[in-house]
Amino acid sequence: MFSQVFTPLFAIVLTAAASAAPATTYTGTGKFPFNSSSKGRRLRISPATYYLPNGGTGACGTVLQNSDFILALGEGHWDDGAHCGETVTVGYNGASISVVVADRCPGCQGDNVDLSQGAMSALDPNWLNDGAISVQWTL
């Protein structure tokens, strides 16, 4: 009787704890795409949307094309451009790419990010229909 009550209750508590867990610091022991160069960085799982820079100048001061592999950080991670030029590994559904922080995303909340059309299409062949995907990334 105890195990019939305790086992489902334990499963519920574990599920709640996992969903409420904050982003963790990556220690370098996880699976690809995160490697030893990611040590000390926080692993984030968040929505990513796409944007079209259309040859405009990004917040980091460089001209950006839609085909570039770039990422725009939200206000919470922008840090006055401190991450401009950093390479970030972004993973989705078993695929991963390297992108460069090149812009700011004023509309991104929390850990959300924007990816250029080139980066988004490399991760998700159905990117145009999906619109937003849940990605893993470190910073």
Automatic annotation (TrEMBL):
InterPro entries referenced in this protein's UniProt entry, alphabetically: Expansin_CellWall, RlpA-like_DPBB, RlpA-like_sf
Keyword Magnesium: no
Signal peptide positions on this chain: 1-20
Pfam families: DPBB_1
Record CDD domains: DPBB_RlpA_EXP_N-like
Alphabetized UniProt keyword annotations: Signal
Domain RlpA-like protein double-psi beta-barrel: 49-136
Transferase among keywords: no
UniProt cross-references to Gene3D superfamilies, sorted A to Z: RlpA-like domain
SUPFAM superfamilies per record: Barwin-like endoglucanases
The name this protein goes by in its record: RlpA-like double-psi beta-barrel-protein domain-containing protein-containing protein
Lineage start: Eukaryota, Fungi, Dikarya, Basidiomycota, Agaricomycotina
